[in-house]
From TrEMBL:
Principal location: membrane
Membrane topology: Multi-pass membrane protein
A molecular function GO annotation: formate transmembrane transporter activity
Keyword Membrane attached: yes
Domain of life: Bacteria
Spans traversing the lipid bilayer: 21-40, 74-91, 98-117
Subcellular localization, as worded in the UniProt entry: Membrane
Keyword Membrane: yes
Pfam family, one: Form_Nir_trans
GO cellular component, as recorded: plasma membrane
Protein known as: Formate-nitrate transporter
Keyword field: Membrane, Transmembrane, Transmembrane helix
Gene3D superfamilies linked to this entry: Glycerol uptake facilitator protein
């Protein structure tokens, strides 16, 4: 998103092309999350999720937040991703690049910040699992609403 927006701002790419590329990226990330979540839920690891599992708690937290919280966490997640991408491009030392990449992974997993593509995956993992009934507000309308708010934050 950052590179497309910058390219459009500086006139290197048309806004219509930006929206087309963004639409394709979001759609195929959704399809990939759908397929991978289904496959992961066929494994032993995901057959033992309970209402106390980290994934269930994370999804419950995400769906229980206010729109403002989702929006601002979407912004902070994008800021960190942009920082990680730029740092990875500009840093010379390989160990520093690895540290930055691991920091981004840590933020998404343990700080439960909002990112649309990450939410595609976490919600699908719960959706294909029997423990989805333990998640409050796990309805299609609430999930779609959350995705729209987070999209604008990202």
């Amino acid at each position: 998103m950052m590179f497309l927006t910058s390219g459009a701002y500086y006139g290197k790419i048309r806004w219509s092309k930006v929206f087309t590329i963004l639409l394709y990226c979001i759609f195929f990330n959704f399809v990939g999350a759908l397929i991978l979540a289904w496959f992961f839920n066929q494994s032993l690891s995901f057959n033992h999720l309970t209402d106390r599992s980290f994934l269930v708690t994370a999804v419950s937290t995400k769906l229980g937040q206010t729109d403002w919280m989702n929006f601002t966490e979407g912004i902070t997640a994008s800021m960190f991703v942009n920082l990680a991408i730029l740092s990875y491009m500009l840093l010379k030392e390989e160990s520093a690049k690895i540290f930055i990449a691991l920091s981004a992974i840590f933020m998404f997993v343990f700080l439960v910040n909002e990112h649309l593509i990450t939410n595609f995956t976490s919600f699908m993992l719960i959706g294909f699992n029997g423990v989805r009934n333990a998640v409050d507000n796990f309805t299609l309308a609430n999930i779609l609403h959350q995705w729209v708010i987070v999209f604008f934050g990202n």
